[in-house]
Write the structure tokens for this entry.
Amino acid sequence: MRQFGVLAVVAMSFGTLAAGGARAEIEYPYCQGVNGGYGSGFVTCGFTTMAQCRETILGMGGWCQANPNYVAKPAPVTEGRPRRDGRRQSGS
């Protein structure tokens, strides 16, 4: 029975790895890149504004660019019109 539990954990681990690599759930619109020597370096796309990215690279160098993979989410649709007390009133 113990071996079955170990095999189940190993099987689930392989299934998780086969499903795809680690990926952030949140995509941000701006990226920072830093060039390193001998082909090393990194790119991180964790900035909400270009100004935020530029402030981050001050003093250490690098560059900022728009995230080519970023897709803006549509604004939520609200139904009805606001009442005087701030709550939503159903339409009709």
User: Anything to note?
Assistant: The longest strand covers residues 41-47.
